[in-house]
Write a structure and sequence with these properties.
With about 475 residues, this protein is α+β, with helices and mostly antiparallel strands. It is built from seven helices and 21 strands. Strands 2, 3, 4, 5, 6, 7 and 8 form a seven-stranded antiparallel sheet that branches. A six-stranded antiparallel sheet has the order 11-12-1-14-21-20. A five-stranded antiparallel sheet has the order 15-16-17-18-19. The longest helix is centred in the middle third of the chain and has 37 residues.
Length: about 475
């Protein structure tokens, strides 16, 4: 049973080094009810695999005689959670109440009395109970769970005895009734505390806290503090950092004060700091991934500008280039001079600021590369993102551009001409990006339905609903009481 309850915990706080948090997740009570409804059949299935230790003892029979009894091979035939209620307890966790839970058990019984009196048979027990407990959430470097305040109340216990001497049935029923009610209550309460707590924390300690985007870039979403449980929702703060697993360095950009939001009863609301983009950019720069070389062979033949010193446009813009190096191919060494920045403003398009250095090189007859001039580009890209059929899509447009000739070894370079050439270069990059982002950035097909995307001041808010989850496949784990 512990594994399905773990799933509930994962979504109560979105499970899973104290540092700035760039991601906050708010979980509604409505989402918890959805999860509880989905996992109820799995709870019943796993409890049916329960084993209860054999029981033995001594009871008073008719006329004060002592009867020794043994109960063995006790197992659960059926179990149903009944109705359930969830209540968030601010500062503590989630109170769970199972009302009218039913359990049918089968067992063998045997008794021994004075003068060789003995008998054996089987019994079917029909138990109706109410179970109340608290899933307390804590934090000690990672999420910690404990089951507290467990109360099991047997509201009805019906016993049907088979086998043995019929005159003894009522005596056996009285013995079982008086003993089993307390046994079931105390055993379930004790094991609920230990088994669920230990197993849940075991799985929590083995729950992934990062998602690999590539071999050397992961998104780390581990908790940075205990979940904050309020009366109608719970929030959890996460690192939300992009790291190199071989050399994890935490980003130090200001993440801002991540707000709490639950709107329109959305199941999960994600609030992302705009600084996540800057942190990713810093990582990619350290890994030298925001740098590359564009050769003349990479330029399509139908391009209006070719990376050749004989190109008619380049001959006008940089006349000294063809004069010194006639009919030679060119390379562009492109690198980010600093991390891109994302600027999010409410009710306005998002802007990404990019900074590039371009070193133009000519390839000589002998194959040597000679730097000829340099360009610094600062460009602002307008970003539009939207939800289409549960899919996050986006597009880029060039909003503003500044181009500067930083140095030259081949004489004057026309600033206006270079401006238009770099604009053509940036437009080609935008076209390639939009081919992918307009199809879809990502879609969580089996888990979340993306519903709404809102721009806040310095933050992005993503609202989601849980999809129909009764088809989720929970790993099996035997529940032993």
């Amino acid at each position: 049973m512990s594994r399905p309850f773990l799933l509930l915990l994962l979504y109560i706080a979105l499970i899973t080094c104290q540092s700035s948090s760039y991601l906050k997740v708010t979980t509604s009570t409505n989402a918890m009810y959805q999860i509880a409804e989905a996992i109820a059949p799995y709870i019943s299935s796993e409890i049916k695999q329960a084993t209860i230790p054999d029981q033995s003892g001594e009871a008073d029979g008719p006329l004060g005689i002592k009867i020794r009894y043994d109960l063995s091979q006790i197992y659960v035939q059926q179990f149903s959670t009944g109705s359930y209620n969830l209540q968030l307890i601010p500062g503590r966790g989630v109170a769970i109440s199972l009302q009218g839970a039913t359990m049918q058990l089968q067992m063998n019984w045997q008794y021994h009395g004075p003068l060789g009196i003995s008998g054996s048979g089987s019994a079917t027990d029909y138990v109706v109970m109410n179970v109340n407990f608290l899933l307390a959430l804590g934090y000690n470097g990672n999420l910690q769970v404990s089951v507290q305040d467990v109360n099991v109340g047997i509201t009805n216990l019906e016993i049907v005895v088979q086998g043995g001497a019929s005159w003894f049935y009522q005596i056996m029923v009285d013995i079982l009734h008086s003993k089993l009610s307390g046994i079931f209550s105390s055993t379930i309460a004790s094991e609920m505390s230990t088994t669920v707590t230990n197993t849940a924390n075991y799985y929590l300690s083995h729950t992934p806290t990062s998602f690999a985007l590539s071999d050397d870039v992961v998104l780390d979403y581990q908790l940075t503090a205990a979940p904050d449980v309020q009366s109608s929702f719970s929030t959890s703060q996460h690192q939300g950092q992009f790291l190199d697993p071989a050399n994890p360095q935490l980003c130090n950009l200001d993440s801002g004060n991540l707000p709490d939001f639950i709107l329109n009863s959305h199941a999960l609301t994600f609030v992302l700091s705009q600084s996540m983009v800057g942190c990713l950019g810093n990582l990619l720069i350290r890994q030298n991934k925001l740098a590359g070389t564009i050769t003349s062979q990479m330029v399509p033949k139908n391009s209006p500008v070719q990376l050749e010193t004989s190109d008619v446009n380049l001959k006008k813009i940089v006349p000294g280039l063809f004069e010194r190096y006639p009919f030679r191919p060119l390379n562009l060494n492109v690198s980010a001079s600093q991390s891109p920045n994302l600027n999010i403003t409410a009710n306005q398009p998002m802007l990404v600021n990019g900074y590039l250095n371009v070193q133009v090189e000519v390839e000589t007859v002998s194959g040597n590369l000679i730097p000829v001039f340099g360009i610094a580009i600062q460009a602002d890209f307008q970003v539009e993102a939207q939800i289409q059929s549960g899919n996050l899509t986006g597009s880029l447009t060039l909003f503003n551009q500044n181009t500067t000739i930083t140095w030259t070894n081949v004489g004057p370079v026309d600033d206006t001409g270079i401006f238009f050439l770099t604009k053509l270069f940036l437009s080609a990059i935008i076209s390639l990006v939009n081919q992918h982002t307009q199809i879809g950035i990502f879609q969580l097909e089996n888990l979340l339905q993306l519903e709404n995307l809102l721009q806040l001041e310095n933050f992005l808010q993503l609202e989601t609903h849980l999809k129909f989850i009764s088809t989720w496949n929970f790993p099996k784990n035997q529940f032993v009481i």
